[in-house]
Amino acid sequence: MDKKIIRQLRKIVGPENLLHSPEELQCYSYDGTTMEYMPEAVALPGSTAEVCAVMRLAFKAALPVVPRGAGSGMTGGSLPVAGGLVLGLGRMNRILAMDRDNQLAVVEPGVITGVLQAEAARLGLFYPPDPASSRFCTIGGNAAECAGGPSAVKYGVTRDYIKGLEVVLADGRIIHTGVRTDKGVVGYDLTRLFIGSEGTLGIICRLIVRLLPRPAAKTTILVELDNIQRAAALVAEILGRFTPCTLEFMDRTAIGIVADQLPFALSAQTEALLLLELDGQPAAVAAEGAALEEFLRQGSGVMALRRGEDQAEVDKLWRARKGVSPAAFKLRPDKLSEDIVVPRTRIPEIVAFTEALGRELDLLIFTFGHAGDGNIHVNIMLDKSQPGEEKKGHEARRRLFIRVVELGGTLSGEHGIGCRKSEFLTLEVDEATMDVMRLIKGALDPADILNPGKIFPQNG
């Protein structure tokens, strides 16, 4: 990077907040994937004004800028694939307002999602989106990727809880989108345009976040089944009669890698688990829980039902569920992690397809995830040191995505596209729609300096 630009960046953010030694840059060269791209420098702004100044400089110099939260993404969204400057937003981590009466918060993008949830709980409120990485991921990164989590089946995803934004555009201008009120239809809905845009349209610097009253009661039920197809089919049956706030699915392999973290031993014949939660007023939760258990006991394939006896036991169940993805490396040293979504009535078909795909390609493929909204995490386990293994893994991804689209699904439910899935975007997005997306990108970022190389296929 030009020394003059380095000096100007140092002046904007302060010498201690401009990183450019090889050791410092290495820390910002990777994310939740196994890919690495080295930036030329890293700036750590502390305010919207500093972000504006950085973007004005970058715009004049045609310098690529990649916004970054905690770097926990799974599709390479925060990787500097074109070099340039990484804009780390971790210093902008203040909760600016918590309004209990109007049930909203105003936060900066570097606020840890779990911290926001804890602050909301202190006021008797809650922030429903709950990605597995909530202890360290940031609300800005969640907004950029439109993160979801287990509660999405009842409460929706990040875009449903962002009421408004402050955004710095590629040329350094500031815009404000959305409202603080529950209703508002003045002009285009620019808030949703930026949610899920993966930092390609602007830098989110402030968020107005919707909160909800904290449910008074919750019950957790674990269902053991002896047949994976029956477990997958049961999801739609449950949702046709009940309204769980979470409905998670784990296959036999997923269960095996976290079995030692569960609060109780499972039967050796267990082929799948469903983890359900109901929430609401105590009497309603008790009645619905009893009815749900009665319904499940009458179903075929159900081997056992267990209720979380206390909060400690429930916490252990969720630690095990959220630990599946990192524990997968017990099986193989490398992993391709996909977060496809299909209509929930098609879950049995996609689960059967992944099992057959694994057998055909001689790969270990297992599934778990948010079955309540059809968002299944498909994990293709690899050992890249073995000849041909990586090629087979990519062939499995290609076939998986084709089948997902055939079933009326989508390539990503919460991880985004980034650079890992961009080559497959045309499977789902038609040419005219892609043209509109490119027009929007070109209008807001004509020099293509905001997170270049993401979302759009790079072969044109």
Give a short overview.
By secondary structure, the chain is an alpha+beta fold. The chain has helices at residues 3-13, 22-26, 48-61, 113-122, 139-145, 152-155, 190-194, 228-239, 252-258, 282-297, 311-322, 324-327, 347-361, 389-406, 431-444; strands at 18-19, 41-43, 65-68, 85-88, 95-99, 104-107, 125-126, 162-168, 174-178, 203-210, 212-213, 217-225, 246-251, 272-280, 302-307, 334-341, 364-370, 375-382.
How would you portray this structure in words?
The chain has four domains: 86 residues, Uridine Diphospho-n-acetylenolpyruvylglucosamine Reductase, domain 2 (2-Layer Sandwich), CATH 3.30.43.10; 119 residues, Uridine Diphospho-n-acetylenolpyruvylglucosamine Reductase, domain 3 (2-Layer Sandwich); 109 residues, 2-Layer Sandwich (Alpha-Beta Plaits); 87 residues, Alpha-Beta Plaits (2-Layer Sandwich). The protein has 460 residues and is an alpha+beta fold. The model has no long low-confidence stretch (mean pLDDT 96). The protein is 33% helix and 22% strand. The protein has 15 helices and 18 strands.
